[in-house]
Amino acid sequence: MTSRKQSQEHQVYLNVQNRVYTCTSCHCHITTHNAILSRAFQGRHGPAYLVGRVVNITVGEKEERLLMTGVHTVADISCKVCRAKLGWKYVKAREKHQKYKEGRYIVEKSKVSREIVWSDDD
Fold first, then answer.
1. Residue 67 in contact with residue 73, Cβ under 8 Å?
2. Strands 57-67 and 20-23, how do they pair?
3. If DSSP states are collapsed to H, E and C, what string results for 31-76?
4. Within its chain, how far is the Cα of 62 from the centroid?
5. Which 8-state DSSP code applies to residue 77?
6. 3-class SS at 12?
7. What is the C-alpha to C-alpha distance for residues 122 and 112, in angstroms, rounded to an integer?
8. How many C-beta atoms surround the C-beta of residue 115 within 10 A?
9. For residues 71 and 117, what is the distance between their CA atoms, to the nearest angstrom?
10. At a CB cut-off of 8 Å and minimum separation 6, what does 95 contact?
């Protein structure tokens, strides 16, 4: 049986040609181009993506935070390999018109890089 700590050390590698975004610190795969729902969001340190799916992250403690669009329950997300803060997860939105964000992620553009993934066929 594998312990929880050991299982967390294994990275998920996204198999999407030329469309992978990685942590700028350690180049661990974080998300794909197709998972980006919007590029018109703001993070703590500037422009950010609203993303539907991320991998290789850890989710921190939930907290109430006053954001530009109102009060939300969020949890910071970090790279599970190098622990760099990447953004946050929307856990709960108070206002009805903000509910679409629940379960989605803000990934700061300055914290990820677009990587070119070459296949064996190239």
1. no
2. unpaired
3. EEHHHEEEEEEEECCEEEEEECCCCCEEEEEEEEEEECCEEEEEEE
4. 16
5. E
6. coil
7. 25
8. 15
9. 38
10. 69, 70
Give the pLDDT confidence of 28-41 residue by residue, as tens digits: 999 999 999 999 99
Exposure string of 62-95, with b = 16+ CB inside 10 Å and e = fewer, is eeeeebeeeebebbbbbbbbeeeebbbbbbebee
Convert the pLDDT of each residue in 65-115 to its tens digit: 999 898 999 999 999 999 999 999 999 999 999 999 999 999 999 999 998
Cα→Cα distances 68→10, 26, 28, 43, 99, Å: 36, 30, 29, 10, 15
Q: Residues 22, 85: contact at Cβ < 8 Å? A: no
> Length of the chain, please?
122
Residue 58 near residue 48, CB atoms below 8 Å: no
Contacts of 78 (CB under 8 A, 6+ apart): 57, 58, 60, 84, 85, 86
